Every structure is written in C-alpha cells, then in structure tokens.
What we know:
Blueprint: H1 2-9, H2 13-40, H3 50-68, H4 74-88
Helix pairs in contact: 1-2, 2-3, 3-4
Amino acid sequence: xxxxLIGEAQHDPExxxxxxxxxxxxxxxxxLARLRAVKDQGQLAPNVDLDLAFEILSGPLYYRLLITxxxxxxAYIDRVLHAxxxxxxxxxxxx
Length: 95
C-alpha cells in the first residue's frame, strides 16, 4: 500500500502533502532524533551532517522498496546501518 501511495503522490499534490505529513515528516523527525542521540553519545563523528546521514540511510531502503522490490529484512537494514555508521564513526587520531 505504501508503494501505491508513493506512486499516487507523483501525480496528486494532495496525496503528496498527506503522505509527507502522515508518514514522512514523523519518520524523519524520529530518525533524526535517534541519530542526534547517537551523535551526542559520541558514537558518530562530531562533524557528521545528520540530515545527509538520514538521506544516505533512507536511499537504500527506498531503492529496495520501489525499484528492486526486494524484501526489507532486518538483516538488510542491519547491513545498511553497519555500513553507514562505519563511515560516520569517530576516527582515532594517528600520529
């Protein structure tokens, strides 16, 4: 059903607004809050752009959902998170 809503939102501005308000905005806010908490705990580099991190995280999930239609399994999501956090984790200074 979510795929259908996204498809319809491409042609119907009212559906697009409703989809954004009902699904995308709350999910974005929730995910950014979680990323902010992880960053505040020192698990991400201090200069990480959280908005960009959210987009990088979301991209593979929407790609699977909308393009390849492969399942969004917990294992796949864990792989995406691992790759994302590995790239954004704080680096030790080497001298």
